[in-house]
Amino acid sequence: MKNFDRSTTAFQELIGSMRQQWANNLYPTLHADYQATTIGHSINSSEQAGDQVTDMPLYHWFCFIERHYQRMKYSDPRWGLAKALSQRSDWVNEQLHPASDSPWLKLNPAMPIPDYYHAVDIHQHPGNLIGADFDGLMYQASATSIHPNTRRFEAHERFAQWLKSHGNFHNVLNMGCGFGKCSFPIAQTFEHAQVIGIDLSEPCLRLAAHTAKEEGLRNIRFEQADAANPHYSNETFDLVTSTQMLHELPVDTIKKVLTESYRLLKPGGLVVHLDFRAREPWLEFLLDGHSVRNNEGFLTAFNRMDMDAAFTAAGFVKAVIEPFAETEGSTEPSWPYWRFPWTLFWAQKPQ
User: Fold this and answer.
1) CA 258/CA 345 separation, integer angstroms
2) Which domain holds residue 205?
3) Which tens digit of pLDDT belongs to each residue from 146-158?
4) Which residues make beta-bridge pairs with 347?
C-alpha cells in the first residue's frame, strides 16, 4: 500500500485487520458455539450444519463481515482500491509491460473471452480482471489480505516446494496464472525449466510480464490463452498446474481443462491443480455460503463434482486428492482459525 495516499493506506490496513479479527477471533467463537449445539446430534449434511447456526446473531455478523469487508476493500467510493488506482493512470502504466510481444509477453487481443468470465464480478472485483488497465494491480493488492495467518504468497511457495519433491520438471504450463503469484515461485524453484503462465486477463499478464522483466527472470513467459482451449501442441509439457482456478469455472469447462491437461502432457508428465474441497458438513456449509458472499458462483458445483470420474474421463488412470497445508500446521485437527480447505488434485499421465 506504499504507493497510495495516507488515507487509502490506513483504510486498507483497517480492512486487513478486520479480516484477521474475522478469521482468528470471530470464527473460532462461532465454531465453538456450533459445536455446542451439535452435542447429542448427528450432523450428516451441510444443510443440517446450517440449521444449527442460522438463528445465531454471531453467524449473521460473520456473514456480514465476510461480504462487506471485501466490497469495501475494492469499491468504497473514497478509499477503495478501484478509486485509488483509477486516479493514478500514469503510475499504473509504469507498472505494466507494454502491450506488445516481448521475451516475457504474448497477447492475443482477438481471443474470445468466455461468457462465464463476463457474467459475474468474481471476488467482487469490479469488471472481473478485464474491466480496467489497473485490474492486475488491484488483484495483486487484494491478494495480500485473502489468507490470514500466512506469509504473503506462502501457499504458492509451499506449492512449488511440493512440486519439487515430485519431480524435476523442464517444461511447465501454469494455467490461470493471474499476475504470476504462483508462476514466479515455480520459475524460481525450477531454474532450468521453461515456464509459461497463461490467463484470460490482459491487465494481469501485463503486470506479470513487467515483474518478470524487473526481476530479470529469463525462464518465464506469459501468454494470453484460455486454459480450456490452449493452442499448444500435444505432449508439450511435463508439468501442468493451476492454483485456485478450477473453482472459478463451470463444471463443463473444468472437464475441458482436465482433457487439455492430459493432451498437453508428455507421457509420464504430472498435472497438479491446487484448489479447495470441503467434505465435512460444517466446512461445506461455510464454503457454500462463501460462494454467495464472495461472488463465486461455480464453487458449490465444483465442491460437489466427482473429480475422480473427471480425471478418469480425461484419460488419467488414477487421481490423488489430498489436503494441502498453506502454512505449517494448518491441516491439523487442532488448527483453530478460519482457513480455506486447500486441496491438491493431481495425477500422472501413463508412460
Assistant:
1) 11
2) 154-348
3) 566 788 889 999 9
4) 271, 319
Query: Does residue 24 belong to any structural domain of this protein?
Result: no
Alpha-carbon distance of 129 to 250, in angstroms, equals 18
- CATH number at 190 reads 3.40.50.150
User: Would residue 275 count as lying in a domain?
Assistant: yes
Enter the C-alpha cell of residue 94.
509504469
User: Does residue 204 contact residue 130 with C-beta atoms inside 8 Å?
Assistant: no
Judged by DSSP in three states, 263 sits in helix
Alpha helices in 87-231 (DSSP H): 89-94, 115-119, 135-143, 154-164, 183-189, 202-215
Spatial distance between the Cα atoms of 136 and 204, rounded to a whole number of angstroms = 4
Residues 6+ apart with CB under 8 A from 250: 116, 298, 301
Q: Measured between alpha carbons, how far is 263 from 236 in angstroms, rounded to an integer? A: 9
pTM: 0.95
Residue 29: burial class (beta carbons within 10 Å; 0-12, 13-18, 19+): exposed
